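Duplicate of earlier report; Tyrosine recombinase XerC input re-posted below.
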Amino acid sequence: MVFDLLSLVTRFIEYLEVERNCSRLTVIKYRHYLVRLVDYLVNIQKIENPKLSDVNLETIRKFRIYLARQPGLHGDLKSVTQGYYVIVLRSFLKWAIKNDFMAMAPEKIEVPRNKEHSLKFLNNEQVTRLLNQPLLSTPIGLRDRTILELLFSTGLRVSELVALNRDQIDLKTREFGIIGKGGHARIVFISKDAASYVDRYLKSRIDKVKPLFINYLKRNSIIYDENKSRLTARAVQYLVKKYTRLAKLPVDATPHTLRHSMATDLLRAGADLRSVQELLGHANIATTQIYTHITDSRLREVHDKFHSGNRIH
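Output:
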């Protein structure tokens, strides 16, 4: 049986949802990128009812040129976004081949190279300035200080942070388990400072709702509706930006900046890259290698200190 391309895309999306247990956002993005390819074949290339065989190097070359000329928010579509299309398409083709459909080899499609971006992270003095901004005399300030402490202590993604429930946190062992990006489970550890603030924050709560971090209305009143009480990722992003401005930091910090800062702090103290990979929940060590600028500088220090050629004779 020969399936049309859109039917195969639908089957692939179902595979992501059911077998890979991908997040809703990932599924939405993958569907968008692949459906846009189908639309391109139908409306631009005028291929009626395209098949998997229509996805070849020449088609993909023309599709990439088409994408490059599409308007983005700030001019032409960013190369990094174009790269996402290629990554998704390669993933789709790998799935097709694995399921015995005749498809072109995904490795023939090259992922575009993007310009190197400097990694944003805070040094210890900047982290301290940021953490000291919330006013602990208010419920919101205490909550926000706890959020900042936990982000820096654990390296949690903002989506992982806002999904936490209060009964997940074990303050005695200072650890808890989460299901992170891609459905991967990992253990998260809390520093003594962060655990102290979590304990203080929870003891200040008079509500019984599940979420660890809750929303507030005016005058610090609590939203008791279970569905509305959980703080959103956008709210956490906003509060990090607010305290970054108050601290007058030279870095436009985000929750992810604190994740980078946590990893940088560990590596500078001597942690190995593989351990940091596990703590951050990276599925691939290649993702963690964005921090090699830290390990490279440590290796230079080791070489300068121990290599016989650097010793004064």
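The chain has a mean pLDDT of 81.

Merging into the original ticket.
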